[in-house]
Amino acid sequence: MLDRDEDILKAAEDWQKAGRGVALATVVETWGSAPRPAGSSLVINDEGTFLGSVSGGCVEGAVVTEAMDVIQSGKPKMLEFGVADETAWNVGLSCGGTIRVFVEKVG
Amino acid sequence: MKLDILHELNAERAARRPVILVTDTESGEQRLVKAKDFAKDPLRPELDKQLRMGKSASVEAGGKKLFLNVYAPTAKLVIIGAVHISQALAPLARSLGYDVTVVDPRTAFASPERFPDIPLIAEWPDTALPPLNVDAYTAFVAVTHDPKIDDPALLHAFERNCFYIGALGSRKTHAKRADRLRAQGARESDIARIHAPIGLAIGAVSPSEIAVAIMAEITAVLRLPPKEKEEAA
């Protein structure tokens, strides 16, 4: 109730209507001390512009890169970031938590 | 996310109506469930629980992994009375995430010096309240001790179905208030909704302590399931 992500979703709609490719990344699960709770989201367009956050800034770069793929393919992806996941990703959360991020195309 | 779902989601949020977006995280399939449709939804217990907590979460149901993303309106707190208690209550409520507005027609009370950074309306409730869009996601507190100001404000809160209504005053004061409201056409069920004496019974004495008692009570009404709520009251 007490969160304000509305501008992000409004931007997603506006960008899509303006003809941009748009993806939405949402934190769907967290373990340990994660920087942002489930439901936090990041909206990304095909120019690489993004709004919102899924972490304190630790993994946004990687999410944006993956989002470009999702905009191209149209297929959703589940990403996982955390200290235990160094093989798949070179980025992790300095706070020691793990998060799963669902990335989907808008439109 | 399909554009029509996103469009509907944004429209519901703009109208301050709670919704939950259900996503099958394996297939990517999605549906939007409006709070008014929870009762007939197969996920009802999960939907009710997550909305009450105001928390998004992943759940497993029917062999599917589902993510329930909760979009609930920002809670508002309307305080009638720019009194000493309100000076403590307004910043406390704001730190808890509420959009706070203070209403008091007495300009000596409703001064920016007494309420730095808090939206203040120095008008009578009849003028001040209609534009505030008081709704079911609003907690409403009347603390002026002046029937001319508190009573019409409370009648407005009944009409708008606020999730919490509280009024300052002892049991005796409240009994008189109930009589006055009845005379003005309020229903018994509405009068019964007023939390008075206001706040949880924690022995609060100072304005700041009373503010804590009020916010604790509002939090309980907002978050506890109905049964536990009765026990806390």
Automatic annotation (TrEMBL), chain A:
Entry superkingdom: Bacteria
TM spans, by residue?
none
What Pfam families does this protein's entry cite? XdhC_CoxI
Span of domain XdhC- CoxI: 15-82
PANTHER family (UniProt xref): ALDEHYDE OXIDOREDUCTASE MOLYBDENUM COFACTOR ASSEMBLY PROTEIN (PTHR30388), MOLYBDENUM COFACTOR INSERTION CHAPERONE PAOD (PTHR30388:SF4)
> Which named protein is this?
XdhC family protein
Question: What is the protein's species of origin?
Answer: Bradyrhizobium agreste
From TrEMBL, chain B:
Record-linked Pfam families: XdhC_C (PF13478)
Q: Which superkingdom heads the taxonomic lineage of this protein's source?
A: Bacteria
Instruction: Please report the stretch or stretches of sequence annotated as the XdhC Rossmann domain.
Output: 77-218
InterPro entries linked: MoCofactor_Util/Proc (IPR052698), XdhC_Rossmann_dom (IPR027051)
Protein name, per record: XdhC family protein
Where does this protein come from, organism-wise?
A: Bradyrhizobium agreste
